[in-house]
């Protein structure tokens, strides 16, 4: 029984301790909330609002002041007492260990405090905006008035610089005066925020006026001075060039300049209306167009110099190339008796002559146009350059073909010399096989020698053909070279293998009596050797020696190679 009593007492004590801990936490939270409430309650909001009294307490300022005061009185007189009641309720719930209700009440207090803080922040923000607007207005309006006076002086002092835009600029400046008066009236009535809107609007208009005062004189200088001067220079240049027999109608310069003069009047009217966005980009385009016409006139001058320098000499150039091409055509007829040419190659001089005849007619027409002086020199230059380029291309092609014809005899001699070299190499291969101490020549090697001899015969036959087809000769020569060189390499390889086989059998003979496997392998090698099957004999002899000493094979190969090099 006592045991159960002790357990109950322990449980009750534990619950009591837990309750005390939770209550302490709630009391701490309630203390924090009460502290926040006191900070809001005692915030010197009315001292902040007193700053407004330094302004004109009329109109909007008076309305804002009353609104802020009433909103804060509502916080102090209604919301703060409500929070006090909630704090009292929370303390009572905690004392009675009603922690859930205490938690809900604390949340309600938190929400109410947030509402009060929000009202405080809004009042201070709006107050700072009002006071800041008054300060900014006072500074910026003085700057705007100073700018207005400066702009006015600029317009009066430089009226000629603004030309037809003067009246519109003066009207824009005159619009500042009623805005200044409206600003002063709003400020006097305490409507500082509305006055701020006037200041911002004036700032925007002042920037526009500043841009106009800078851009209008520049654009007018372009329209009234620079572009007219360029027009005058272009007209004079055109007249002087036409007096010197230049053909310039294709440029349509007169029509352009007449239209440009009319357009300048329209652009001047646009400036009078201060429509600069429509004028400025067009002025840039006009300047580019004028530069383009200057370049075109200069191009005509340079083209005339080119034509005068090159046109007269072109006649002899065409004749020289035509004479060269005819000579090559005659040479083709002669060469074809001895050498065979492809149809396409044989036609090269004839095609060149036909092309030259066309170019000659084009040149004659060009020469006529030059003397008539009714064509633009730029187009004449372009035509002359095309004729020149085509003639140079034909001359280059004919010269290349002529060199090819000359090289036919050289190629034939080279082919005959190489044929003799291949014949000697084939003879050397046959002598090499004849001098070698080998049982006989395998059928495969005989077939290679026969094939090489046939290739030589084919080359000889192709060299005896009339007319000679040098391309075919070179192809047969290449086939013969590959066959003979390969046959020579195979013969050397076979002789080397025979020497290695003999050395391997000699080395293995010392072990035949003591090693049966060596003996049998050597018997097979000797049998294959007698039948001219040298590759099979080499494999069997190597197997035999490898049983005895695997390194011996490499030593024997090195000895054989040294022996062949000393021969």
TrEMBL record:
<protein>
    <recommendedName>
        <fullName>Septation ring formation regulator EzrA</fullName>
    </recommendedName>
</protein>
<comment type="similarity">
    <text>Belongs to the EzrA family.</text>
</comment>
<dbReference type="Pfam" id="PF06160">
    <property type="entry name" value="EzrA"/>
</dbReference>
<feature type="topological domain" description="Cytoplasmic">
    <location>
        <begin position="23"/>
        <end position="567"/>
    </location>
</feature>
<keyword id="KW-1003">Cell membrane</keyword>
<feature type="coiled-coil region">
    <location>
        <begin position="250"/>
        <end position="277"/>
    </location>
</feature>
<keyword id="KW-0132">Cell division</keyword>
<feature type="coiled-coil region">
    <location>
        <begin position="370"/>
        <end position="432"/>
    </location>
</feature>
<dbReference type="GO" id="GO:0000917">
    <property type="term" value="P:division septum assembly"/>
</dbReference>
<dbReference type="GO" id="GO:0005886">
    <property type="term" value="C:plasma membrane"/>
</dbReference>
<dbReference type="GO" id="GO:0005940">
    <property type="term" value="C:septin ring"/>
</dbReference>
<keyword id="KW-0175">Coiled coil</keyword>
<feature type="topological domain" description="Extracellular">
    <location>
        <begin position="1"/>
        <end position="3"/>
    </location>
</feature>
<dbReference type="GO" id="GO:0000921">
    <property type="term" value="P:septin ring assembly"/>
</dbReference>
<keyword id="KW-0812">Transmembrane</keyword>
<keyword id="KW-0717">Septation</keyword>
<keyword id="KW-0472">Membrane</keyword>
<dbReference type="InterPro" id="IPR010379">
    <property type="entry name" value="EzrA"/>
</dbReference>
<comment type="function">
    <text>Negative regulator of FtsZ ring formation; modulates the frequency and position of FtsZ ring formation. Inhibits FtsZ ring formation at polar sites. Interacts either with FtsZ or with one of its binding partners to promote depolymerization.</text>
</comment>
<keyword id="KW-0131">Cell cycle</keyword>
<keyword id="KW-1133">Transmembrane helix</keyword>
């Amino acid at each position: 029984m006592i045991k159960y009593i002790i357990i109950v007492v322990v449980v009750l004590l534990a619950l009591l301790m837990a309750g005390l801990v939770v209550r302490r936490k709630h009391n701490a939270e309630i203390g924090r909330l009460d502290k926040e409430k006191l900070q809001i309650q005692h915030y010197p909001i009315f001292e902040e609002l007193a700053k407004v009294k330094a302004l004109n307490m009329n109109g909007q300022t008076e309305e804002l002041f009353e609104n802020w005061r009433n909103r804060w009185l509502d916080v102090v007189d209604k919301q703060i007492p409500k929070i006090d009641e909630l704090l009292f309720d929370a303390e009572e719930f905690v004392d009675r260990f009603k922690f859930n209700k205490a938690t809900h009440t604390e949340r309600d207090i938190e929400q109410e405090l947030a509402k009060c803080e929000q009202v405080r922040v809004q009042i201070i923000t709006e107050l700072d905006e009002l006071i800041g607007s008054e300060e900014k207005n006072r500074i910026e309006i003085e700057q705007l008035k100073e700018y207005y006076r400066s702009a006015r002086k600029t317009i009066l002092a430089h009226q000629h610089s603004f030309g037809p835009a003067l009246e519109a600029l003066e009207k824009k400046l005159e619009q500042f005066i009623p805005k200044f008066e409206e600003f002063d009236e709003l400020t006097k009535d305490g409507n500082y925020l509305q006055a701020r809107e006037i200041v911002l609007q004036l700032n925007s208009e002042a920037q526009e006026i500043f841009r106009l005062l800078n851009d209008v004189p520049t654009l007018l200088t372009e329209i009234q001075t620079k572009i007219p001067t360029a027009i005058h220079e272009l007209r004079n240049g055109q007249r002087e060039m036409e007096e010197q027999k230049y053909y310039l109608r294709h440029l349509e310069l007169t029509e352009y300049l007449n239209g440009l003069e009319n357009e300048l009047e329209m652009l001047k009217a646009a400036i009078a209306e201060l429509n600069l966005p429509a004028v400025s980009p067009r002025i840039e385009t006009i300047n580019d167009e004028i530069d383009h016409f200057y370049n075109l006139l200069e191009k005509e001058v340079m083209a005339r110099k080119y034509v005068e320098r090159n046109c007269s000499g072109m006649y002899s150039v065409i004749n020289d190339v035509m004479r060269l091409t005819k000579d090559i055509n005659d040479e083709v007829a002669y060469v074809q008796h001895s050498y065979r040419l492809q149809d396409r190659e044989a036609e090269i001089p004839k095609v060149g002559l036909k092309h030259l005849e066309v170019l000659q007619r084009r040149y004659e027409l060009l020469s006529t146009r030059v003397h008539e002086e009714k064509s633009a020199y730029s187009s004449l230059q372009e035509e002359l350059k095309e004729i020149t380029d085509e003639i140079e291309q034909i001359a280059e092609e004919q010269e290349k073909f002529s060199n090819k014809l000359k090289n036919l005899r050289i190629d034939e001699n080279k082919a005959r010399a190489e044929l003799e070299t291949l014949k000697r190499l084939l003879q050397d291969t046959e002598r090499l096989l004849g001098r070698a101490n080998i049982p006989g020549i395998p059928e495969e090697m005989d077939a290679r020698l026969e094939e090489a001899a046939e290739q030589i015969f084919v080359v000889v036959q192709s060299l005896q053909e009339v007319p000679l087809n040098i391309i075919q000769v070179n192809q047969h020569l290449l086939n013969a070279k590959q066959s003979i060189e390969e046959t020579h390499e195979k013969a050397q390889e076979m002789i080397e293998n025979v020497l290695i086989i003999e050395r391997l059998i000699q080395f293995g003979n010392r072990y035949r009596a003591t090693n049966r496997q060596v003996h049998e392998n050597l018997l097979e090698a000797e049998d294959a050797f007698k039948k001219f099957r040298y590759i099979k004999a080499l494999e069997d002899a190597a197997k035999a020696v490898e049983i005895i000493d695997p390194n011996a094979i490499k030593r024997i190969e090195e000895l054989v190679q040294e022996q062949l090099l000393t021969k």
